[in-house]
Design brief:
The chain is an alpha+beta fold. It has a single domain, classed as Ferrous iron transport protein A (FeoA) (SH3 type barrels, Roll). 18% of the residues lie in helices and 47% in strands. The protein is built from 2 helices and 6 strands, in the order ββαβββαβ. The protein has a 6-stranded antiparallel beta sheet. The longest helix is centred in the middle third of the chain and has 9 residues.
Length: 73
């Protein structure tokens, strides 16, 4: 289990844990970041990450990405 922020372009993993306050976790869940979902890093742009999760592309800043832990593949 590693923080999503450490993943590189093209890396894929399964979400195993999301930390933070309730409203932060709820916001991430609304974007598709839930335990068990697969997430792929499409690109890193400046301080943000472009991610593919549940057939969507989502941009997260480093602070939000650091709250998501994945099991890399």
């Amino acid at each position: 289990m590693v923080p999503l922020i450490t993943a590189g372009n093209g890396d894929t993993g399964s979400i195993v844990r999301i930390t933070g306050r309730d409203e932060t976790r709820r916001h991430l869940a609304e974007l598709g970041f839930v335990v068990g979902a697969d997430v792929t890093v499409l690109n890193r742009v400046g301080g943000s990450m472009i991610l593919a999760v549940k057939d969507s592309r989502v941009a997260l800043d480093q602070t939000m990405a650091a709250r998501i832990s994945v099991d890399p593949r």
